[in-house]
Each structure stands twice: as C-alpha cells, then as structure tokens.
C-alpha cells in the first residue's frame, strides 16, 4: 500500500486526493491546507485528515472548529510520496521539505522543468520516469499533457516532421474570479513560439513543435487547433482509428451534437462525472482531416482534470511499483476514464 499525502488542496489537489482515495494500492494519509476555507470544510466532510500547511495558521483552523491531524511536516514524514499541488513556484520551494524527510514528491506543471528530476506523462514517458531513479517528478501542465498524449501515438505510428499548434486558452478556472480577460482576446504570450512547445520536448525530446497561445474570456476548457506534418500520408480514417485506440483520447462523435466546450461539460455532468471532469483529450472526430502528409484537428482539454490520472500514474512510476499498461489500466478503471 502506497501512503500518499497531498500538499495544497485547491483545484488540482482536491481532485488528486479523491483519485488517490479510489486506488486499490494507495491510501490517502491526508491533505495539507493553508486556510480553513470551503475546501477545508469539504475535506473534513470527506473524512480526509487535514494538516496545517502553514503551522503559524493552525489557530485559524481551531477557531473555525476544524480539527487538525498535525502540521505539514508530520504528513511529509509519514508519507511514502507527497503530491505537491501548491501554486506555481511554491512546489519548487517545497522541494527542501521533501528532501529533509527523504520523501519522494510529484510536482505540477506550473513549476519549471528543472525543479524536478524528470517530467512525466503516462502515455509518453512512464518507463523513462521509472528508469530515472528520480526523487522528484513533475506532471507537465494540462496543455502539455494534452499535446503529449496526442503526439506520442503519431510519432510512434507515422513519425512527425513538424507540429504547429495554436492553443486557445481559457482565461481562468471557474473559481478564479480575479482572472481574465472578461471582454478581450489576447495573444498570450505575444511572443512566438510560446513555452508549450519546449515543454512538450521535456516529454518527447525529438519532436519538432511550435506553439502559439491566445487567451479568451472562457473558463470551461482550452481548445487546440492542431496541424501536424507527418512523415507518412495516412488517410483521415486511419488516423481516426489510431487515436480511437488510445484510452485517454475521446473522439467526440458527430452524432452527439456536441459543438463546443459548453456541451462537452454538460455531457460530462449529465453522465455523472465528478465535478463534470473530462480526464480525456476531447478530439472532434469530424475535424480529423488529412491533406497529403498534413493532419489537422481540433481538441479540447479540461484544464482542471486531465492531469489527474497522470498524477496517479506518476506515483507508481516514481516509486517503480507498476508497468505502464497496468498502472494506466488501473487508474482508468478506478476513475472511469474512457468515454
Ligand atoms: P489552486 O490555487 O487552485 O490551488 C493551490 C492550493 O494550494 C490553494 O488551496 C492554496 O491555498 C494552497 N497553497 C498555497 N500555498 C501553499 C503552501 N505553501 N503549502 C500548501 N498549500 C499551499 O491552484 P491549482 O490550479 O490547483 O494549481 C496547482 C498547480 O497545478 C500549479 O502548479 C498549476 O500550474 C498546476 N496546474 C493547474 C491547472 C489548472 O488549470 N488549474 C492545470 C494543470 C496544472
């Protein structure tokens, strides 16, 4: 049994905690929080032991009537692995804490690649992570996860000469009331290429990829406009079959009438997905087109949840507990991945 602590209980942390609790080979030993807010209340109601992320604030929890199991160092000391889901930059600073207790850790995509020993995506480099003898792995960002899942089978099956992707990015998550834009369309970053392409290279080193970013007033999902020049000339049907065989790629069928991210999220909620989460890349099936060696498609990425199965697999890879197929299959089955 792998004892897992989750440090930082926000958008990603609360989802990772639920996913850990669902695994047959893992036990959630607790979550660390900075404040006794609504998420702390929800963690208590779920029965998750709560640790004070900032010991000086422990009184705030007591004043709010919330019992603490201890301080974050107690959790780190007890855990076999900590999943750090704190805001960008905090995870890198926390590395000292994990090293002090010799506890392996998983960081998130908001950290620079060099904050970790290895960057992780289950489909593309589970084996590389398991072999790396690393103490700290970084699950790459939501966008990089989505791109890596898509490119890995294309690289393996056809070879990729060049990928060009425009990422239409949501302004903020639904709970991030201070983010924007609320009435604009921003080149973001305005410089070309964006950092996402180099981030994909931390997972698939040899793929030639340029990315451009645009930020829009939306909260539900990102949308990628993808053009990949392949080293072969498959038909659109052949590419569709290749992608359809991947458990974490969902081909949105034309007949469902899903025309955008709003209906995708409705579909997720209607089918009982927790929090309306979409762990899979959502690729519009009829957008998959080929022109000679050029492949085109649109895919949407649910930024709040596509990295959740990856965090679970990263735990097993970092601790070298399972092979890729077994880990991904267990994660997919327990969470319900695969629409
Ligand atoms: P979030 O702000 O929703 O949650 C972070 C939580 O950590 C908050 O509850 C915050 O109070 C807490 N925290 C702050 N300082 C802390 C500390 N010192 N110790 C413990 N907890 C602390 O952020 P998020 O969206 O969950 O992002 C977390 C990480 O995941 C970031 O690296 C981010 O880039 C990455 N990520 C986010 C998304 C997304 O769309 N939300 C997607 C993929 C990856």
Short descriptors:
single chain; 339 residues; alpha/beta; Rossmann fold; Dihydrodipicolinate Reductase, domain 2; 2 domains; 8-stranded parallel β-sheet; 8-stranded mixed β-sheet; 12 helices; 35% helix; 24% strand; globular; binds nicotinamide-adenine-dinucleotide
Folded structure, characterized:
- The chain is α/β, with parallel strands linked by helices and 339 residues long.
- The protein is 35% helix and 24% strand.
- The protein has two domains: 2-140 and 307-335, Rossmann fold (3-Layer(aba) Sandwich); 142-301, 2-Layer Sandwich (Dihydrodipicolinate Reductase, domain 2).
- It has helices at 11-21, 38-46, 58-63, 72-78, 90-100, 122-131, 142-157, 196-201, 236-244, 261-270, 308-318, 324-335; strands at 2-7, 26-33, 50-52, 70-71, 81-84, 105-107, 118-120, 136-139, 160-170, 186-187, 209-216, 222-230, 249-252, 281-284, 289-291, 294-301.
- An eight-stranded parallel beta sheet has the order 4-3-2-1-5-6-8-7, sandwiched between helices.
- Strand 7 (118-120), helix 6 (122-131) and strand 8 (136-139) form a beta-alpha-beta unit.
- Helix 1 (11-21) crosses helix 11 and helix 6 packs parallel to helix 11 (308-318).
- It is globular.
- Bound molecules: nicotinamide-adenine-dinucleotide.
- Nicotinamide-adenine-dinucleotide (NAD) binds at residues 7-13, 32, 34-35, 53, 85-88, 90-91, 108-111, 141-142, 173, 303-304, 307.
């Amino acid at each position: 049994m792998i004892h897992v602590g989750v440090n930082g209980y926000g958008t990603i942390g609360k989802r990772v905690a639920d996913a850990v609790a669902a695994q047959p080979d893992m036990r959630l030993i607790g979550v660390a929080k900075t404040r006794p807010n609504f998420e702390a209340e929800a963690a208590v109601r779920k029965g998750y032991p709560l640790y004070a992320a900032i010991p000086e604030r422990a009184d705030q929890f007591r004043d709010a009537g919330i019992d603490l199991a201890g301080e974050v160092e107690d959790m780190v000391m007890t855990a076999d692995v900590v999943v750090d889901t704190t805001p960008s930059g905090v995870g890198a600073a926390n590395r000292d804490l994990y090293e002090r207790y010799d506890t392996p850790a998983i960081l998130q995509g908001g950290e620079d690649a060099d904050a970790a020993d290895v960057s992780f995506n289950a489909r593309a480099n589970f084996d590389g992570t398991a072999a790396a003898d690393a103490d700290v792995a970084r699950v790459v960002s939501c966008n990089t996860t989505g791109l890596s899942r898509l490119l890995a089978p294309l690289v393996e099956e056809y070879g990729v000469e060049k990928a060009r992707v425009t990422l239409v990015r949501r302004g903020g998550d639904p709970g991030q009331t201070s983010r924007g834009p609320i009435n604009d369309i921003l080149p973001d970053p305005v410089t070309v290429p964006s950092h996402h392409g180099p981030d994909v290279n931390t997972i698939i080193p040899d793929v030639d990829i340029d990315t451009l970013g645009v930020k829009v007033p939306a909260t539900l999902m990102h949308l990628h406009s993808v053009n990949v020049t392949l080293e072969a000339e498959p038909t659109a049907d052949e590419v569709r079959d290749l992608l359809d065989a991947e458990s974490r790629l969902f081909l949105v069928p034309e007949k469902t009438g899903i025309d955008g991210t709003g209906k995708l999220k409705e579909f997720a909620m209607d089918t009982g997905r927790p929090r309306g989460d979409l762990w899979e890349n959502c690729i519009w099936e009829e957008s998959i087109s080929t022109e000679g060696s050029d492949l085109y498609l649109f895919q949407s990425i649910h930024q709040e949840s596509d990295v959740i199965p990856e965090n679970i697999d990263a735990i097993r890879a970092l601790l070298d507990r399972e092979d890729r197929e077994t880990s991904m299959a267990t994660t997919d089955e327990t969470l319900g991945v695969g629409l």
